[in-house]
Amino acid sequence: MGFGMTIVPQPQAGLDQEQFLTILSREEAVRRFEAALFPRAVPSEVRRLAEALGCVLAEDVAAPIDVPPFDRSNVDGFAVRSADLAAAGEASPVRLVLNGEIIACGIAPTQQVAPCTATTIATGGPLPRGADAVVMVEHTQPAGPRAIEVRRAASPGQFVSHAGSDIARGEALLRAGTVVGSREIGMLAACGVAEVKVARKPRVAVVSTGDELVQPGHPLPPAAIYDTNGAIVVAAIDENGGEATFFGAIPDDETRLEAAMRTALAQADMLVLSGGTSKGAGDLSHRIIGRLGKPGIVAHGVALKPGKPLCLAVCDGKPVVILPGFPTSAMFTFHDMIVPVLRRMAGLPLRSDAKVSAKVPVRIASELGRTEFVMVSLVEGRDGLIAYPSGKGSGAITSFAQADGFLRIDALADQLPAGAETEVTLFTPHVRVPDLVIIGSHCTGLDLVTAPLSRAGLSVRSIAVGSLGGLAAARRGECDLAPIHLFDDRSETYNTPFLAEGLELVPGWRRMQGIVFRKGDTRFEGASAREAVAAALVDPACIMVNRNQGAGTRILIDRLLGGARPEGYWNQPRSHNAVAAAVAQHRADWGMTIAPVAHAAGLGFIPLAEEHYDFALVTARRQRPAVQAFLEALGSDESRAALARAGFRPA
Ligand code: AMP
Ligand code: MG
C-alpha cells in the first residue's frame, strides 16, 4: 500500500488495524505538504466587473482614461474668467453678461466664455473654453435678465476639478494581488473598465465519508448523525477564496468511495474529504489515495490534539486532504493547515486579520509532544482581549457557535500559564466583541432574559465556567455579570457571602431543587424527599446519581444521605441536565436536580429546597447601556412571565 515515505503499515495478528508508525510534527507535515505543492502558477481568468467581487486581481490595472475626463465644475454657479474678477469686492461689484447656454451634466459646451461674460454651469458640468474658474450661485446676484453681479474675487481653478486630477491616464489604478471589494469595483467602473483578469478561484471538491451520515433536512435514523463537516467545510472554503462543490456523504464502501473520489478530483483543483482517516478497519480513503496519483500521501498522522489522524496527500499536483471525522478536529486542522495552502492557490495573501493577540485568564494544561488546539471565546478585558477556553471536548459542536477562534499550544509546552499572551486564529474574519458578557454558571432561564436584548441588536455572550469561575472573571473585570448559585454552609444563605469588593448582588430567580425519578416508580411516587431517600437506601438494587463536590445541590444530597454512600454515589456529573439524563436513560434511579430540568425530561419530581440563582454585577460596569438593558429585561413583566412559565420563580 502506498503510504509514501512516512507510514509503514504494521500488520497485527488478528487485528485489521494499522498503527500510525510515523507521527510527524505539525511543522514537518506542513513543510512536506507545501514542498509537494509549491511553487505553482496561479491560473487566471477574465471576469466581468459584477462577477469579480471577492476575486484577486491577477495583474496590475492601469487607468485607461483620465478621471475626471474633463475639467469639471464642483458646484452650481457660473463659469468665469478669474481675471475678470480680480478687482471684485463688496464695494466694487463686477457685472458679467450671461452667455446663452446652460451647461448641465452631460452637456458639452458650445460657446466660449469671452471677457466679461459668464456661462451658467451645474455641478458636474464641463468647463467651457475660455473659463478657468467657477463662482457659486450663492455668491452672485442677478443684474437684469441676462447678467449677474459678483462681489468677490475668484482664484484660477476655483471650484474646478481638473482632468486627471483623480486618476491620471496610465497611472496604476490597482495592483495585482488586490482583493476586489466594492471600492475597487467603484474605481474600475469610474475608469470604464468592464472586465478584469483575476486569479481563478481554486475549485475544491468536498466529500464526507461514513455509513452513519445523513444530510440535514432528512430524518435521522437510530445511531445516525447529521453530516456536519460537509456543510462547514464548504462554507470555510468559500470564505477563504475557493469555490466548493459538495459531492455528498459517501458510505464506507471502497468501490463507491474510490469512484466518488476519482469523479470529484477530475473536476477539481483540490479534494477535501473528512472521516475515515483513523487507521481503523472501515477507514478507506487513505488506501484509495495511493491509487489516485503521485506522490500520494506525504503525511498521515500528525502530532496534533485534536487532529492526529489528519492525512495530507498530493495526487499529480492536486492537494488531497482527509480531515479527521470529528467536526471540531476537522475545523482546527482545516483552518490551521489547509487554509494557508488554499489561499496561496487562490493567489490570496495570508489573512492578517485572521489572528489577534489575547491573554488567557486561566492555566490551560496541554499534552507534551503534540501541538494542541484550544477553542476560545474572546471578551474584552481591562487591557486587551481575553481568550476564554470553551472547553467542551473535541466532539462538541456547540463550542463552535460560542467560539471566536482557537489558540495553539506548542508541542514542547505542557501548559499555557494563566495570564500568558497568545495568538488566536479567528474562525470569522473579524473579532466580534460582545456588548454584554456573562460568565459563570449556566441556566436555561438566562436565554429567556437576554432574548429581548438580542432582539434590540445587542450581542450577548455567555460563557459557562461555573459559579466560582464566574466570580473570578468578575473580579478580574472580564465580564459584566457573573451568574452564581453558591450556598454558604455556615450562614445557610446563598450568594451574598461570596461577593468580593466591587461586586454587587442582583437578585435573579429561584430554582426548586428536589428528587428526580422516573414517573411510576413506586419507591418515590407520592413520597416526601426524606421518605424517598429512605426508600432508596433500603433497596440494594436502587442506584443514585450524585453531583460534583462544590455544587450547592451536593450539600443538600449529602445532608439527606446523612453519611450513607449508596450505589451510584461516585457518579458525580457537573450539571442539572446530566442528572436528569442519567435517570431518564435508566443509568440511575434517582438524583437531585431542578424542577424545570426534571419536567423538560418528563420525569417525576419531589420538591425540597429552593436554590438562589443570582447575578454578581461588576459595579464599575453598571452604567454600560447593555448592562442597563439587561437589568431592565430582568425586571420586565415579559421575562418574569417567561421565567415562571419555564418553572422558575423570579426573585
Ligand atoms: P471517523 O474518522 O470516520 O472514524 O470519524 C470519527 C468521528 O467523527 C465519528 O464519531 C464520526 O461519526 C464523526 N464524523 C465523521 N464524519 C463526520 C461528518 N461529516 N459530520 C459529523 N461527524 C462526522
Ligand atoms: Mg467514519
Explain what you see.
With 651 residues, the chain is an alpha+beta fold. It folds into 4 domains: 90 residues, Molybdopterin biosynthesis moea protein, domain 3 (Molybdopterin biosynthesis moeA protein, domain 3, Beta Complex); 144 residues, MoaB/Mog-like domain (Molybdenum Cofactor Biosythetic Enzyme, Chain A), CATH 3.40.980.10; 72 residues, MoeA, C-terminal, domain IV (Beta-clip, Beta Barrel), CATH 2.40.340.10; 215 residues, D-Maltodextrin-Binding Protein, domain 2 (3-Layer(aba) Sandwich), CATH 3.40.190. The chain is 23% helix and 29% strand. The strands form 11 sheets. The protein has a 6-stranded mixed β-sheet with strand order 7-4-6-5-9-8, with no helix packed on it. Strands 16-13-17-21-20-18 form a 6-stranded mixed β-sheet, sandwiched between helices. A hairpin with a 2-residue loop joins strand 24 and strand 25. Helix 3 runs parallel beside helix 6 and helix 8 packs across helix 14. The protein is flat and about 115 Å long. The chain starts with 25 loop residues before the first helix and ends with a strand. Bound molecules: adenosine monophosphate and magnesium ion. The site of magnesium ion has 5 residues, from loops.
